[in-house]
User: Fold Glutaminase from Halobacillus faecis.
Amino acid sequence: MIKDITESVLEEWLDNVRPYAYDGQVANYIPALSRSNPEDLAVAIHYLDGDAVEAGETEVRFTLQSISKVISLALALMDNGESYVFDRVGMEPTGDPFHSIYRLEQVPSKPLNPMINAGALAVTNMIHGDTPDEKVGRLLSFIHDLTDDHSIGYNEEVATSEFESAFLNRSLLFYMKQHQIVTGSVEETLDAYTKQCAIEVNVCQLARIGALLANGGKDIHSGRRIIPKHLARICKTFMVTCGMYDASGSFAIKVGIPAKSGVSGSVLASLNEFGGIAVYGPSLDEKGNSVVGLRLLEILSNRYDLSIF
Amino acid sequence: MIKDITESVLEEWLDNVRPYAYDGQVANYIPALSRSNPEDLAVAIHYLDGDAVEAGETEVRFTLQSISKVISLALALMDNGESYVFDRVGMEPTGDPFHSIYRLEQVPSKPLNPMINAGALAVTNMIHGDTPDEKVGRLLSFIHDLTDDHSIGYNEEVATSEFESAFLNRSLLFYMKQHQIVTGSVEETLDAYTKQCAIEVNVCQLARIGALLANGGKDIHSGRRIIPKHLARICKTFMVTCGMYDASGSFAIKVGIPAKSGVSGSVLASLNEFGGIAVYGPSLDEKGNSVVGLRLLEILSNRYDLSIF
Amino acid sequence: MIKDITESVLEEWLDNVRPYAYDGQVANYIPALSRSNPEDLAVAIHYLDGDAVEAGETEVRFTLQSISKVISLALALMDNGESYVFDRVGMEPTGDPFHSIYRLEQVPSKPLNPMINAGALAVTNMIHGDTPDEKVGRLLSFIHDLTDDHSIGYNEEVATSEFESAFLNRSLLFYMKQHQIVTGSVEETLDAYTKQCAIEVNVCQLARIGALLANGGKDIHSGRRIIPKHLARICKTFMVTCGMYDASGSFAIKVGIPAKSGVSGSVLASLNEFGGIAVYGPSLDEKGNSVVGLRLLEILSNRYDLSIF
Amino acid sequence: MIKDITESVLEEWLDNVRPYAYDGQVANYIPALSRSNPEDLAVAIHYLDGDAVEAGETEVRFTLQSISKVISLALALMDNGESYVFDRVGMEPTGDPFHSIYRLEQVPSKPLNPMINAGALAVTNMIHGDTPDEKVGRLLSFIHDLTDDHSIGYNEEVATSEFESAFLNRSLLFYMKQHQIVTGSVEETLDAYTKQCAIEVNVCQLARIGALLANGGKDIHSGRRIIPKHLARICKTFMVTCGMYDASGSFAIKVGIPAKSGVSGSVLASLNEFGGIAVYGPSLDEKGNSVVGLRLLEILSNRYDLSIF
Assistant:
């Protein structure tokens, strides 16, 4: 097992990738995200033996955004079982952008996978809970278990801001409601979804989630099983086939580590027999992936030959 | 000018087309429509000289549904001018079904024309009025002017029923709100739109609207101008290129009369130098057009060589 | 009947629209077309009583290009009957560009109409004749009849040049061959099609074809029927719904005269109770329509209130 | 390392999956394939230490069909380098069927990946060689190296039959020729491609190719490097993201082993730290994958926990 990555190595890598932060742009569709500092870079590794190493602005908290799709999928699968979930959301990757709607018009009109927005909205709709707050409460409890950190909550300003401007997600939800893929109130599902996306973590907490997934769903420190192994595997599989928006294929070629990115500029990576990795760098490329996150994971994969392929 | 179509000729035609009523199906997506009697057939012609002839169940009132798109377009054009309207809604026909959304994903993301649902919703959004009731009130006043009949209102049961189940139209509206094609409240626009679709008329009132359009926008009896001539022409043009859903092209070939159909089973036709024609027969073909309406207009066109082409 | 358009009026209009020639670009995908002079403008009107008026560079000969689609459709309908033709090619307009292929992937996989390339290629495939030369020979004979001018032939340089570079049309043909819409040799059909597109006329000859169509298919001078009336009508209907590429809808709104354009910069228009109109001006807008042709027909339609709507 | 799968275990698995052969259908688009016997099942495993185990009708030879896409990709990458190849063919998975063309109409108009037909045709076009026979000769030499078996050739009947009926592939090639993705003669590229698809192997030879890929591109027995390690990895990555047509995503979830299928009913799988696996069973599901192959790999993966995720 590789374990020789020290903080000074991580610091050096951060220095190497820092210039790329200016090749991209911070997400600007809501004020809270647009205020992010493109120079706030951070990285953390959580090894399978419980050791952790970190570098950069590790105290910066950021919202999960699309990374939350992996976690809500795990919970929805635990709540409903595989067949219920995959009757409503497909398993196939797609070359379309995350916000795409036109595929829903094809038969059968279900979202191609749970990592595009339509699929993720349907997944959140399936999480057990009578109210948005109950759903989000259950998701937060789940994340508290995943991280052994009960302080994690969601950023209300971000959640409110996204809720107010989420016209496209409302469009996707109503489309799916028409086709009986989602049930109940669109506004309530969207409320839960925008709060889910606004859950705030730092790289250390995120790397620990990655380590738990790499450990087959068991917490590394307590040995407690949080996610059944086969469901943790499903999450990692989707991270490979559809985790990096419509750059998932090229990321698999160039990096080959299961990873999920979010428009806050964060990336969650999980590698069996290694552990969890989290990177933060809010400058995004045109696909919505963290420029620095991609570079850093590419360096790491190439240096230690970490591709799963 | 042709004027030799008598009531007994119309009755005979109705008898000829009656059997076709069983080739289609009454719209069943809301209870009020599904209760329509497929044998309730009616036809009316309003000549340019003011004479009118009618046959069948002419007292049956039906909701305008998509026929209202022509009328709301006229009002929106009068309210906003051509360039404002056509900056937001295109002029091109499409081979897509009326409910289609995927075209909106193409650049520029505006509805291809005002006769598909997306375009018609955007048109209703443009009608002046601070509230849905004000918009609908103005539209009803406009229809009162068009028909010289102030008794026309909307069917609340149909409006409410359509409003409650209009998930797809909400999806289209939110999609367009995301792309700044519509402004304001989606629910309010939908409220206005479903009331607009639920406006109730009989074939005689509808034929008079057709006659007014054929007369270049002037009321035949009073000579009063209700719609500017160039806007009446625009309406008739869209009736030809996109009036009969994705059967508009074949209808133009087979019949060649400007016409707009609605899923209540009604058809409004307008022919320069002839007058207005309205047909009612609630049994629909798979495109959503009245089976009997199509047959009857085909007979009429062929018998009197009425195609504009 | 309007007949007061003199040569000096036409000259004046040409002067008015001449500056617009520089708003577009001459087709440049083959050398022969790219050598066209954007200042070579010409217009001709052929009235229903046989009189004709013309202005500009009327001796310039140009290739029919897509205008030939109307003529080949008439011949294919006469050769095969309506039901055979429309079993293989649809009647619906489309908002897609003329070269589009993706619609063919939808069910049923037949071209939406005979004015887009896929549909026109299928139509040429249906023209009777054992060899490309026999098909083209029959089409030329037909055009000789339409114009009463046996000198019309095709431009071999243009035909050869288009044949050699027609990869997209080969793609469409093979796609349709896969789906049994076309039969026989793709190369032979393409040979016939590129020769058909390369048939050369001047505006006077073209205006006469327009007059014959306006006259219901009968030659104006001899009274001889060349095209059955209902088939001439079908041609004019397609000219309205799909004659001007994906600007057909806006052309119908703004001009309202049945017309078909070609990328050589020519437009054929046909108006019942008026006659035929032909315009030539090789500078094209981004849709592929003659900039000057559009302007001139718009002036003509507005000045004399010629819209059929 | 797992090595306890004996021939009797394999035989037992074949017996278990045999009934599923009747759930699918043998490919019937060419006579040679339609004559396959759905009961001819075979499986072979080639371990990384060089040992091999096999069961069923292992002497049956079948054509590679789409499995050849992985091998031609390796050769094209060795011939041209990564940047040349991926400038012309993308890296992204797609939810579309293998024969799909409409994506090419999107910008940029290059095939989404090398495993769909369009991408594979472009790859074959890039293989060095002045003639189809030179390309195919080089590909066969490469396969001789991969298998250490110089007897492997292609089935002329299958190649000829596919060549004659490959209208859709011609359509794709001409489309790409129009967009400068492929160069040279379409017929010659198709000739090379259909011969490539018609290369015949048995499961033992195929499993050895899988083992070489699992061994990072080095022959297991001689230690000779045949494919650079990073290119072998690229091949395995595409096998995961797009190897099983539009069922790649669900196969990754359910099985999680890099694999490529062909419509002959064969599957090539390659698993690092394990070896190569080949299955043959000509009965196909509606996606074009071997019913028995999928079942057998699912059993194997679940029994030995082989998913890479």
